[in-house]
Specification:
Length: 124
């Protein structure tokens, strides 16, 4: 019961972060809050975090990645529609790399946990 509640919190946090990313991508540049890192690193970290949260909520990392990869490209493309920004392919690449990295790590962790359960179950 507690894990269902926790997964809902992860899903809610991921959804809030996606909404914030969408807003941040389309708001005027002067309103942005920067972390002090290079913008490519920021994009990687934000999308890595979003993917991790959604993978914690829904343990199907490749499905999560399949949903988030087009979103990263779409949100970067949408910046080209704003008057003070341009769509940057390198930024989209770093964002998609964050999604793919987090999904692959989550898939590896899930596979290792399944294997450990299987090994423990057959020994006992």
């Amino acid at each position: 019961m507690a894990s269902v509640s926790l997964s809902r919190w992860f899903a809610l946090a991921g959804a809030v972060l996606v909404a914030w990313i969408t807003y941040a991508a389309l708001m005027p540049v002067d309103w942005q809050i920067r972390l002090g890192l290079h913008w490519l690193i920021e994009h990687f970290l934000v999308f890595f975090t979003v993917t991790t949260l959604f993978c914690l909520a829904w343990p199907r990392p490749m499905a999560v990645a399949a949903l988030l990869l087009p979103f990263t490209i779409l949100i970067e493309t949408a910046q080209g529609l704003t008057p003070d920004r341009v769509a940057d392919p390198a930024t989209a690449l770093f964002a998609t790399t964050g999604v793919a990295s987090a999904a692959l790590i989550a898939d590896l962790v899930i596979a290792l946990r399944k294997r450990a359960r299987k090994d423990t179950g057959s020994a006992g």
